[in-house]
């Protein structure tokens, strides 16, 4: 636009334009903005399991599954993963019901807020299941504003990168994508994070509930002595087989 204005005087009559640079034209800058990101600092929750963020990711290669649903605890960063054959209301409700029942039965924890994109609010059955039946508040992000659900979006991106690297390193076939994703989520939950003072999401999540319940334990560090190189060759050993 600035280049066109420079030639306007010579190509037209009766035009006088004072020199203007693109950096001085705020209106031009606003008009060309493709996406406006809100930079308001999000205050993290003070309790584990109270605020969850849900994000969906498409999957290919595995004949039985088309999507992955990742549920992230905002307090600890801990992720639960569900692999879905479709995204119909009954399938989503079944996965969410399993998660909520597990949290309540094992940890006596009932989530209060669900951060999500518009896929859940657009399904009246799923939104009614969460808000009416379970009394949770939905906080959907604005359309085309992934930054508002940034925690879940970013963790999902990390899981994707980790899964791709693990598959490439182990040279595994594409029909094992679900198992690779499961392993990637498992390792993510047990990897120290700078934002949590180099504690793992696993430790941060379960230590909170240990202190809440008065369990005499300093920390709930994950035991990783069983881990081996992903995709390495193994051999079966039969122990105690009768002769």
UniProtKB/TrEMBL annotation:
It catalyses: DNA(n) + a 2'-deoxyribonucleoside 5'-triphosphate = DNA(n+1) + diphosphate. GO terms for cellular component: nucleus. Residues 41-209 form the Integrase catalytic domain. One of its GO terms (biological process) is DNA integration. Keywords: DNA integration, DNA recombination, DNA-binding, DNA-directed DNA polymerase, Endonuclease, Hydrolase, Magnesium, Metal-binding, Nuclease, Nucleotidyltransferase, RNA-binding, RNA-directed DNA polymerase, Transferase, Transposition. GO terms for molecular function: DNA binding; DNA-directed DNA polymerase activity; endonuclease activity; hydrolase activity; metal ion binding; RNA binding; RNA-directed DNA polymerase activity. The keyword Nuclease applies. InterPro entries: Integrase_cat-core (IPR001584), Retrotran_Ty1/copia-like (IPR039537), RNaseH-like_sf (IPR012337), RNaseH_sf (IPR036397). PROSITE patterns: INTEGRASE. Signal peptide: none annotated. This is Integrase catalytic domain-containing protein.
């Amino acid at each position: 636009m600035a280049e066109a204005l420079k030639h306007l005087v010579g190509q037209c009559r009766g035009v006088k334009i004072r020199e203007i640079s693109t950096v001085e034209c705020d209106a031009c800058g606003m008009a060309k903005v493709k996406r406006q990101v809100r930079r308001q600092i999000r205050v993290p929750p003070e309790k584990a399991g109270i605020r969850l963020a849900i994000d969906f990711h498409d999957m290919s290669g595995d004949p039985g599954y088309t999507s992955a649903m990742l549920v992230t605890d905002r307090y600890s960063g801990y992720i639960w993963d569900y692999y879905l054959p479709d995204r119909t209301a009954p399938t989503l409700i079944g996965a969410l019901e399993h998660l909520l029942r597990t949290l309540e039965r094992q940890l006596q924890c009932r989530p209060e807020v669900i951060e999500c994109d518009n896929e859940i609010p657009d399904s009246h059955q799923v939104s009614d299941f969460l808000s009416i039946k379970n009394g949770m508040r939905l906080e959907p992000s604005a359309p085309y504003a992934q930054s508002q659900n940034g925690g879940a979006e970013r963790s999902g991106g990390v899981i994707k990168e980790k899964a791709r690297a693990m598959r490439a390193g182990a040279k595994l076939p594409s029909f094992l994508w679900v198992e690779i994703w499961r392993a990637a989520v498992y390792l993510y939950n047990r990897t120290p994070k700078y934002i949590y003072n180099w504690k793992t999401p696993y430790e941060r999540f379960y230590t909170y509930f240990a202190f809440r319940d008065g369990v005499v334990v300093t920390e709930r560090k994950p035991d990783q002595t069983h881990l081996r190189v992903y995709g390495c060759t193994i051999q079966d050993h039969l122990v105690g087989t009768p002769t």
